[in-house]
Specification:
The complex is a heterodimer. The longest helix of chain A has 7 residues. In chain A, 4% of the residues lie in helices and 46% in strands. In chain A, the strands form four sheets. A five-stranded antiparallel β-sheet of chain A has the order 1-4-9-6-7, with no helix packed on it. By secondary structure, chain A is mainly β. Chain B is 13% helix and 35% strand. Chain B is built from six helices and 20 strands. The chains are: A mainly beta, B mainly beta.
Chain lengths: 312, 382
Amino acid sequence: MSKILPTLVLTGALLPCATAAQVPPNRLVNPGFDATLAGWQIVAAFNPTHGPADADGSTMSGSATVSAPAGTALSVRSLYQCLPFSGGNSATLAFKVEVAQHPDLSRALGAVYYYDQPACAGSVLGEKPVVPPGDLHLGVWQNLYTLTTAPAGTQSAEVRLIASTTASGGAQTISWDDVYFGSQPDPGCFSSSKVLCLDDSPADQRFEVISHFATTSGSGASGSGQAISLSALGVGQGGIFWFFDHNNPELLVKDHNACLSTDYFWIFVSAATNVNVDLAVGDVTTGAVVLFHNPDQSSFPTIHDFLALPCD
Amino acid sequence: MRLKPRSTASHSADARETIAVAGCHIPFINTFWIAARPDGAGSNHAADNALGCADVPEPGLETLKRKDLMAKIAPALILACALLPGAAAAQSQPNILTNPSFDHDLGGWLLINHPTHSTADADDSANSGSATASIPSGAPQGGSALSQCFPLAPSDAGNTVDLSFKVMVANPADNSSPLGGTAYYANTRCTGVELAGTRTIFPPSDLHLHVWQTLHAVSTIPAGSGSVGIFLSAAAASGGGAQTISWDDVYFGPRADSSCAPGSTLLCLDNNSGDQRFGVASYYSTVQGGGSAGQGQTISLSSLGVGQGGVFWFFDHSNPEMLVKVHNACPSGYFWIFISAGTNVGVDLYVEDTVTGAVTFFHNPDQSSFPTIHDFLALPCT
């Protein structure tokens, strides 16, 4: 997650309340669909709407939902964002998705398209889809991702959330939340005041965790979560962030290897805060990223994500 | 809350004495000392099985004054003992009450004036609830709603205990009408005249409406006490209007020690830097994975410069389960307590204030995701 800087101008412009230097690496606007679909371009074909169901269980946030009617066996770009992006840069595209029916496994649920002109104009130089895995679960939020590198000559990238009907052309409902498009985790995790490195196996520091907070409470404040590593206490699979006072921990994050039983690493987030939080957990082995989001002035629910990061 | 292991010889004698008096083991103050032994010796449940628990008819539940009602409590508790044979884990905790969090019903409590079980839970659990009493408009006064009675041994005299509960009221309460209390009696059945030392919890002047608020009272067991009755009372609305009152997470047990000594199962948190004003202990239990239970093991963060928060682990030292922190919001009159847990096992968590003696209690039922708790009315500052 070291390639943060190229996105800051755009993101900072769209989020004037945020301090630019403290914006997390996610380059998308409104990735958690708090109150609306603002920031996303909407394609009317399947009529995307904002729904109250939230992947993180927040009652103050929601998701983007599309209901694809039966008989239209099509993949339709439903929501998208365009952002500046340079050729040769790598990124991870990840999102949580919940589907109601078995999808057509050949059709993507999201993708990134690279253009040779700014503002996603000109020719498409390449694309990278996120296709449903064979073990896609129905009726629950599941984090999907893909790794991508922009072809030479790329000047902009379009992140698309794509709806389709079922394999048989039946009706389908698809929801997306916590969309991430940004830098990939570094090959190795390097602990710092803002980066928490968590273990899978002892001391392997497989997971890289960063957080960002913002609030309008009081006179307003925002910044990066400050990491408190517990490794010195013999605790490798969990760590803590503080926001306002080193003496006052705000967030406990831990991973659990459930690869034998579920093929996934579980991520638990236990927070004692009601400010806006964006938390990204990256797997330095696979490059996958999972994003968690809590809106401001809302108690951060406890998160037990059993489909957070695939094991391989 | 004395969570340190204690010498057991004299306490064992106390336990035998009280068991003999009761005829059926009912948890009482001194049994806690024994159950707190790290080797698990002194099992209350084993004593129950050896002695057997008499199953006696529940008395009538007609409306009576509290003193009269206490006469009917002791037999009811014997019944409760028989109905809750699996409560061994809970009995090893400092809270001696049966069903203090009203997970599914009001079992274990003597019911007066038809209190009901509500799904509203002070800890926001979808799998637990609370006890609720409704007073219709025009009713002249409130009255007791739920009670439990415990025999006491002569050696219990002089011990200090704390009664605390979370209460939520719908309308302003008559501040002369109690919300709960602790009453001591010379006999073992909570009957007759209350002894000096009885403590009543009246609605405080800062009683909040429609939110859970912890109230507590410390008392000292008077000499000559043969039993103690715990009662939750539906305070009347001021002006005689309708009132609805709910209780949850009732604690009755040792008051907080006057200092906190950190250990493998006791986390000490600061108010001011290094003062270790608050003690925190946790207990977990689950039927999952073949079943297991025990005390939460502490991970103090003080060596990392973090004094107001700490962590517990249950199954693996490398895998923290629960972050607990305290925040001084005393301009509001209260310390705030935040609990963020990454577990779905049953958890009982106690936070004690070594200055005031108050103990507040949090509960998550087994097989239920522990919700994040932001308790802004957790422990009064004074």
